[in-house]
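Last lecture ended with a question: if I hand you only a sequence, what can you say about the shape of the protein? Today we answer it with a concrete record. The protein is Short-chain dehydrogenase. Below, first the input exactly as provided, then the predicted structure, then a couple of comments.
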Amino acid sequence: MSMSVEDCARSRQGFPRPVPDTPTNVLQQFQLQGKVAVVTGAADGIGLSVAEAFAEAGAHVALWYNSNEAAVEQSVRIAEENGIKTAAFKVDVSDSSQVQKNIIKVLDTFGKIDIFVANAGMGISEPILEQSLEVYRKQMSVNVDGVVFCAKFAGQVFQKQGFGNLIITSSMSGHIVNVPVDQPVYNATKAFVTHFGKCLAREWREFARVNIVSPGFFDTKMGAGDSNINEVYRMSALGRQGHVKEVKGLYLFLASDASSYMTGSDVIIDGGYVLP
Ligand SMILES: NC(=O)c1ccc[n+]([C@@H]2O[C@H](COP(=O)([O-])OP(=O)(O)OC[C@H]3O[C@@H](n4cnc5c(N)ncnc54)[C@H](OP(=O)(O)O)[C@@H]3O)[C@@H](O)[C@H]2O)c1
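The predicted structure:
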């Protein structure tokens, strides 16, 4: 039942909350000096680009990877190029104990976590009638369980610290039935994490912000393949896939004080794919 006008007129203790003490200069708002960020799926693709963006803005970065050992070299290069601290951690996000242990390792190495980007994912493009239950479970274990485990254990740290910022990489496929390849389980995993992130924005309102990025096709290992590349060019209003350098600004915005009044938002960055 909604509240009456009289109920609504009653002031609530502690409100309005204070405006955060952030810079007024917009370029200063984008700075991440002294912040510590964790990025999952950081060896390549969108995650690597996000790790670079944060380091370029002054943050120390923990690069989480699963199988791609290139993360170790990338971590060293990013630290040298930007004069910040980095470390690479091998973590299978579908294994809750690995996630939990490595959050503690990040705290041991960096002392805190300001920003956590739950970006790791896998894309299995199969119709459900052709998909084995084992493959279905694998898809769910990375895209859904992986995000839930990262959020749960990073969220515990945020709650204890009294601050934090979670960014989830979802997909436009959580909004649309992506065409032309049938991939219902992948699409549904992304719908899950988008809604999950919005729910966390409320649950964690006293200590952390949570936002979601929903990319369209980006030219990475998970981008368009031979079977759909022509349709991707046709569907995207900009007529191409995104380059990973084109997501850096959005993740930096969400990670920084420039977005201090944003939580629970889901930002589509897709070259206009979902417009029609
Ligand atoms: N590219 C696109 O068109 C597009 C569109 C919408 C959404 N996305 C989303 O963007 C995110 C990043 O994908 P991307 O395009 O950058 O492709 P990518 O380069 O293939 O990145 C996927 C990353 O996920 C990691 N990963 C996979 N399974 C994992 C596991 N069990 N534990 C930990 N990490 C695991 C991989 O790590 P290793 O390589 O170390 O195994 C890899 O770094 C994904 O969540 C994807 O769904 C991509």
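Comments.
1. The mean pLDDT is 97.
2. The CA atoms of residues 141 and 211 lie 21 Å apart.
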